[in-house]
Amino acid sequence: MTLRTILAFFLMLSSYSLFAQQDLGIEKQWVVKTSPLALFEPETIIIQGGLEYFFNTKVSIQSEIGLNGGLFGMKAGRGGNEDFRIWRSKSEVKFYTKKNYWAVEFFYVNKDFTRKDDSYGMDGQEFFYDKARINFYVLATGIKFGRQVYTSKNILIDSFAGLGFRGRFRQISQVELSENQSDEFSENFFDFADRYRFNGWDSVPHFTIGVKVGILTGDLD
Fold first, then answer.
1. Nearest C-alpha neighbor of 129 from the set 141, 142, 146, 116
2. Residue 87 and residue 66: Cα distance in Å, rounded?
3. How does pLDDT run across 18-42, given as a tens digit for each residue?
4. Are 93 and 15 spatial neighbours (Cβ–Cβ below 8 Å)?
5. 36 CB burial (10 A radius; 0-12, 13-18, 19+)
6. For residues 67 and 17, what is the distance between their CA atoms, to the nearest angstrom?
7. Contact status, residue 114 vs residue 130, Cβ threshold 8 Å
8. Is residue 95 part of a domain?
9. Are 48 and 41 in contact (CB under 8 A)?
10. Quick check: helix, strand or coil at residue 8?
């Protein structure tokens, strides 16, 4: 379990126990959303935010985008990952009840980075490299259950959990082949390193838990 997941879990419990959501009373208004937990992503720091528009008190749409500093030439990436560039987008439709909401979400992730001292499999063989360029894409959808509560007149805490599926594609371009073709000197920088060790598509189940902060742009009627 990552630090981001642990923080999200405790923040969600706090918001559920401290506040009891009533009808939000938001209609034909925008809410600005930020995702503070994106700062704790294990591979790189991501700045993520978006907008939610309420058609009425029962239905809204939400879209957001996340970017990291590598897209703007800044040094980014952790462990064996360098020159890390990522952007991701997410859109969802929310259906509100009196105390909670259900949502259908769709999201896309695009990663491009250099990875060091690892390996990948191809045609039944394993190749060890000193450096490789990896392009990694994700297409996913899922269903979320959540709750939004006021912490002040114009501030909302949006906590949620969800399930779904994601399709992942990666292309590994070897830059420098390792002289030692064994795993004796290889390093595992992340628990999820296996996702970068073969070419092509795969699909996996998806679980999400998180917290967002919303700022109501107008006044309640």
1. 116
2. 5
3. 444 457 889 999 999 999 999 999 8
4. no
5. middle
6. 32
7. no
8. yes
9. no
10. helix
> CATH code at 94?
2.40.160
- Indicate the number of domains in the chain: 1
The domain of 71 spans 25-110+140-168+205-216
List alpha helices for 19-118, DSSP H: none
Angle ∠(12,13,18) on CA atoms, nearest 5: 105
Query: Distance between CA atoms of 134 and 15, rounded to whole angstroms?
Result: 39
**pTM of the prediction?**
0.83
126-165 residues labelled b (16+ CB within 10 A) or e (exposed) = ebbbebbebebebebebebebbbbbeeeeebbbbbebebe
Average confidence score pLDDT of the chain: 87
Helix (H, G, I), strand (E, B) or coil at 189: coil
pLDDT at 104 over 80: yes
From residue 207, alpha-carbon distances to 74, 86, 115, 145, 161 in Å are 30, 20, 26, 12, 8
> Any bridge partners for residue 112, and if so which?
85, 135
Helix, strand or coil, per DSSP, at residue 48: strand
Residue 187 has pLDDT above 80, yes or no: no
Return the SS3 of 172. Answer: strand
